[in-house]
Amino acid sequence: MTETAVPHADPASGSPAGGPDGRAPKRSYAKLAADESREDYSLRYAPHSYRRWSPTMVASTALGGIAYLADFAIGASIVFTYGFTSGLASILCAATIIFTTGIPIARACAKYGLDMDLITRGAGFGYFGSTLTSLIYASFTFIFFALEGSIMAQAMHEVFGLPLPIGYLVTTLIVIPIVFRGMGALAKVQAWTQPVWLIGLVLPFVILLFHSPGSFGDFTSFGGTEGAGSGFSWIGFGLGTGVALSLIAQIGEQADYLRFMPAKTEANKKRWNLAVLAAGPGWVVIGAAKQLGGALLAFVALEAVGKTHALEPIAPQVEALKPWLGSVALPVAALFVVVSQIKINVTNAYSGSLSWSNFFSRVTHRHPGRVWYIFLNLAIALTLMELNMFAALNKLLGFYSNVGIAWIVAVAADLVINKRAGWSPRYIEFKRAYLYAVNPAGFGAMVIASVVSILAFFGLFGEYAQAFSTFIAAGLALILCPLIAWATKGRYYLARPNPVNGPDVPVEDITATHTCTVCETAYELPDIADCPAHSGPICSLCCSLDAGCGDVCTKRPSGEPVLMPMPEVRTH
Q1: Average pLDDT over residues 232-253
Q2: Region 535-544: what's the mean pLDDT?
Q3: Residue 376 φ then ψ, to 5°
């Protein structure tokens, strides 16, 4: 985006300065917000002209972000608390749910070039309804940044004796230069670090297989450290699944990469489908394996290091490497931990900046640029680390999963059920100019499911409901989203039809650019709306930031929908 002629807006404001001659005022954006090499179309549709990466490169970058070792800690915590059998069942059940719900979301993000927030807007939540989910997603990114940062700080403490509070600060600051530069820098970091990470991931298990093969069998009869026993427990299964399901919002971080997937064509459709499956829901296959692997390493190290340190990934890594590496096991393990945590925390910080941008742009009608929200997200994460959130891992993640699963399942239900039933538009409409503020189908389903499941989580409905609160959240969201859409006959999806952005628009029309009346910058058709307030085309971001239009495009004074022709934009 480039600076426009006078009259200017406040660079970060959503309300341009008024023109002296009554003409529609123009908007100019602050330098950082205008630089798409850093901004990465953070609040927009990602245009085809920007999706210059191959399906394989996008998938590789997205999967690089799942290098995190929180899986090791989460898996160990589940198995230590509920025993091997219940823990295994919990991890596999959660992985199945996450994989199933992730498929339609991943395909939608890749097809339409939209992040999770924009998908949520059009998949049953409405323009302001998805604001709440932006907060949910932002909380996911800073909670897991704090968790991953704690693990890295633990490694630095073991190797260098660095006090944990200082380690937390170092792990926070180290990612800023990478995240500041956007997708291009993230892709390079993920590619360069992948070989080191893969070797570090596999080596401990290879050593264990040769040095202590009997530990694999012993692990299957492990009864945990809390007296749960090695048999199956429904209560343990329910509670453990709830903890593992806290990772369901990870699909949002995968979507932040998937929106850069190139267009699907006859020539690339096999690679495209495989890349979307791998980079979208496929992350959880590796994630579940890491949870079980982390639990195994913690079990083997339990006697040597004790329960507390066994739950910290650095100690089990060191114990597993010692038989072959001896005195260098600690620095090698620390290198693996640091590389892993940098790979995931650049993703956490990047995705957090996107979600905060989405939230504040709608609440304040201001957009100073994505990069400024990096600092907000990291400040919250650093505070959580200093408060030692790692010590309350199970409780925190178990609570969070109730809200996260209600959101993700409601979106998946809309994409799979409502669109096929005809209650929801066949395409994803994300622009304010065509949406109601709140759509009760997805938003209502999420709120009801979250409230009921949280009450169950705190024991209001008994022991079994408490253990299976996440299942209650998922079940209610899955049922209520289609039910509300059917009851309202899909009325709240579109405030008015969009005749030029439907699912059957030819590719040549989609990629044709049109100039925004407000910022005077050209964007591809899916990012453009017709605006009666400015008497012409308007891009989605200028539309979002307009604080004084009164949403005249979606309703007359009487509240009736208005259809305004847009000859400047309509291409066929």
Answers
A1: 91
A2: 88
A3: -65, -50
